[in-house]
């Protein structure tokens, strides 16, 4: 039986970033149920980096992640991880309260209001009779999710980490300060575990004897459709997101990606898209634009996982010794992953929050599972 310092359960973006951050100082085992890491939510995102999105703590952690994406360590990737996109928050008449809320909640230097003419020139398919007001974040970027995830896994392996796929964790025992992990790929021992099991986080927590954090996987649908516009022109358009997030669309490799921004509670599973969600999205996009959704090339769904306050759960369990959470990243798990990996590594090492992240105003208590049991 092989012994490790840390076993991380789940090799999506969250588990992989924790493994990457810990591997230089710890013997790390990364366990994954599937044959390929990234099969679940990580492989199904819209790939947007947006500092003006999500609750305050998410925005702070996203801002703390930007330097890594802009200048990853040598050898992490051969491709840029970010590419300019811009995000336009679009509002029909009668949505003034939502526009004002968007402006009030934005961190300084992110979102500004722009006039309708400028919004229409940035995103030509918008219907001028639909659009009333628009906010713009020029700093929103496309992410290369594959390169990010691959970079974490490559760096983790180069530092001596062990990835075990087809290795669903089935049973946990702890004695004399060591966990024994029984998996489909064999039995391992580790001093500490990190629960990065995505939609399955509460099930893995239960194996360790932890109280549930109340994770709710919520299905989100996406699809790509053809648009009769030259690829070079299309590539310059921003993401357009309805101000109350009832739909969004963005260019994606010569096609247009759209989502109804659905949040349908689901059991942990291999999520699949529903026709009704796609039809509703098509209707909303067509009502706000001159686009016609006739040829859908690909459709999918993934589970965005939340707890009650929609903030992530990062850090030691408040009752079970040697168990850490890296769960509930919501719809922000890729863009926050560099800082999330460092935060979790700080807790595992016992050094606490990295200074730059604490300086942004993030507090351990607002990440801790204990807040959910108060
Ligand atoms: C349509 C859509 C659009 C999105 N858009 C964005 C976006 O623009 N920007 C952004 O940052 N985020 C976005 N997200 C959210 C982002 O994809 C997620 O936050 C992120 O992928 C979560 O990563 P994860 O590692 O927690 O989960 P996952 O990728 O689901 O990984 C968890 C892994 O744990 C494994 N596992 C579970 N149980 C066990 C076990 N017992 N043993 C071993 N392994 C186990 C699973 O097999 C799985 O691979 C989007 C999501 C969707 C669905």
Short description:
By secondary structure, the protein is an alpha+beta fold.
Question: How are the SSEs placed, and which strands pair?
Answer:
Elements lengths: L1 E8 L3 H10 L5 E4 L16 E2 L6 H15 L11 E3 L2 E6 L3 H10 L6 E3 L1 H7 L8 E7 L3 E3 L1 H14 L3 E3 L4 E7 L2 E6 L2 E10 L5 H7 L8 E10 L5 H5 L3 E4 L5 E5 L2 E5 L4 E2 L9 H14 L7 E11 L6 E4 L6 E5 L9 H13 L5 H5 L15
Parallel strand pairs: 1-2, 1-12, 2-9, 5-14, 12-20
Antiparallel strand pairs: 3-8, 4-8, 5-7, 6-7, 10-11, 11-12, 13-16, 13-17, 13-18, 14-15, 15-16, 19-20
Helix pairs in contact: 1-5, 1-9, 2-9
The structure holds flavin-adenine dinucleotide.
Amount of helix: 25-40%
Oligomer: single chain
Distance N to C terminus: 39 Å
What would CATH call the class of the largest domain? Answer: Alpha Beta
Number of helical stretches of at least 4 residues: 10
Shape: elongated
* Strand elements, count: 20
CATH-derived architecture of the largest domain: 3-Layer(bba) Sandwich
CATH level-4 homologous superfamily of the largest domain: FAD/NAD(P)-binding domain
CA-atom Rg in angstroms = 21 Å
- Binned strand content: 25-35%
Q: Which cofactor or ligand species appear?
A: flavin-adenine dinucleotide
- Main beta sheet strand tally, sense and closure: 9 strands, mixed
Q: Write down the domain tally.
A: 2
Mean pLDDT: 96
What's the CATH topology label of the largest domain?
Answer: FAD/NAD(P)-binding domain
* Poorly predicted parts: none
Content-based structural category: alpha+beta
Topology order in helix (H) and strand (E) letters: EHEEHEEHEHEEHEEEEHEHEEEEHEEEHH
């Amino acid at each position: 039986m092989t012994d490790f310092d840390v076993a991380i359960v789940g090799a999506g973006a969250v588990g992989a970033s924790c493994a990457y951050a810990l591997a230089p100082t710890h013997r790390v085992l990364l366990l994954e149920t599937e044959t390929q890491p990234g099969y679940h939510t990580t492989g199904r995102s819209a790939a947007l980096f947006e500092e003006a999105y999500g609750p305050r703590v998410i925005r702070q952690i996203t801002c703390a992640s930007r330097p890594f994406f802009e200048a990853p360590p040598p050898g992490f990737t051969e491709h840029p991880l970010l590419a300019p996109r811009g995000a336009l928050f679009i509002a029909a008449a009668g949505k003034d309260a939502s526009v004002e809320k968007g402006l009030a909640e934005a961190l300084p230097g992110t979102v500004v209001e722009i006039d309708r003419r400028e919004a229409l020139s940035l995103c030509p398919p918008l219907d001028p009779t639909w659009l009333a007001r628009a906010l713009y974040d020029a700093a929103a970027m496309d992410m290369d999710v594959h390169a990010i995830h691959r970079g974490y896994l490559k760096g983790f392996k180069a530092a001596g980490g062990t990835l075990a796929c087809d290795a669903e964790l089935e049973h946990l025992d702890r004695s004399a300060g060591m966990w024994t992990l029984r998996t489909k790929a064999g039995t391992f021992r580790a001093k500490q575990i990190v629960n990065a099991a995505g939609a399955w986080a509460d099930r893995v927590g239960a194996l360790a004897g932890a109280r549930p954090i109340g994770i709710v996987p919520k299905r989100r649908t996406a699809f790509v459709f053809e648009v009769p516009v030259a690829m070079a022109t299309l590539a310059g358009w921003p993401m357009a997101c309805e101000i109350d997030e009832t739909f969004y669309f963005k260019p994606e490799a010569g096609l247009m990606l759209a989502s109804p921004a659905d949040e349908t509670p689901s059991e942990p599973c291999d999520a699949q898209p529903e026709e009704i969600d796609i039809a509703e999205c098509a209707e909303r996009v067509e009502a706000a634009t001159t686009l016609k959704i006739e040829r859908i090339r690909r459709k999918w769904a993934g589970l965005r996982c939340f707890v009650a306050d929609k903030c992530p759960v990062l850090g030691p369990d408040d009752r079970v010794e040697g168990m850490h959470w890296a769960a509930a990243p919501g719809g922000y798990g890729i863009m926050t992953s560099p800082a999330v990996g460092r935060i979790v590594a700080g807790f595992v090492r016992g050094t606490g929050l990295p200074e730059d992240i604490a300086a942004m105003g993030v507090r351990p208590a607002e990440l801790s599972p204990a807040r959910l049991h108060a």
